[in-house]
Amino acid sequence: MPETPLPEIPFVADEVSAVRSFLAYYRATLRRQAEGLSAAQLRQALPPSTMTLGGMLSHLAFVEDYWCSHVLHGTEPAEPWAGIDWRADPDRDWHRAADQGPEELLAQYDAALVVADAAIDRALADGGLDTLAVTPRHGSAASLRWILLHLVEEYARHAGHADLIRESIDGATGL
Predict the structure, then answer these.
(1) 10-residue averages of pLDDT along the chain (175 residues)
(2) What domain of life does the UniProt record list for this protein's source (predicted)?
(3) Which residue, 28, 86, 36, is CA-closest to 60?
(4) CA nearest 31: which of 14, 7, 53?
(5) Which residues, listed in sequence order, are joined to residue 45 by a DSSP beta bridge?
(6) Which of 38, 102, 157, 158 is deepest in the core (most CB within 10 A)?
(7) Helices 15-34 and 53-65, interaxial angle, to 10°?
(8) Residue 49 to residues 52, 53, 111: CA-CA distances in angstroms?
């Protein structure tokens, strides 16, 4: 059974607490879906999709770094992302998980969350949810509010994928 508890989402909260609670919930949901699985199981796809739980952990670690550090604060991508030849493999954030074990994938994911939360905290302290990202996307600067809601959307979509993949691996549901 999963070790990661699912955090409570308050029914009444200020905007920052509400959005961060949903983000924390979906982060924990994804982690729970991957817990207790072997490297082979983390590489298992549910055809016709090639998506795997290991790939999803790697992808979302990248997404956290990309949006919270690179886009929001303008920092260069951290390793392992900085050393990737994205032209050779635009989906390397997904594919690189095939070469990693469960401990490494979960540690990388957890470390990305710590860095992302610190970047979010810094932006909240600087200007709150209206803080504009340093790196524009599609010609516009996104607000921290938009970035946080985008992360919730990204996680919610992948949490559904993770549910189906995990059930296909070992029949576990309701994690």
Answers:
(1) 88 98 98 96 96 98 97 93 94 96 97 98 97 95 98 97 96 83
(2) Bacteria
(3) 28
(4) 53
(5) 52
(6) 158
(7) 150
(8) 9, 12, 27
Q: How many CA atoms lie within 13 A of 26 on its CB side?
A: 22
Model-level pTM? 0.95
Length of the chain: 175
Provide the 10 A C-beta neighbour count for residue 27: 24
**How far is it, in rounded angstroms, from Cα 87 to Cα 103?**
28
Q: Which two tokens stand for residue 141?
A: 């600067």
- Which residue's structure tokens are 């032209």? 87
Rounded Cα gap, residues 68 and 116, in angstroms: 5
Alpha carbon distance 165, 56 (integer Å): 11
Give the separation between CA 100 and CA 59, rounded to whole angstroms: 13
- Binning the chain into helix, strand and coil, the percentages to the nearest 5 are 65, 5, 35
Q: Are 151 and 20 in contact (CB under 8 A)?
A: no
Q: Which domains does the chain have, with CATH numbers?
A: 15-170 (1.20.120.450)
Task: Decide if 64 contacts 151 (C-beta within 8 A).
Answer: yes
pLDDT value at residue 138: 92
Residue 174 confidence (pLDDT): 77
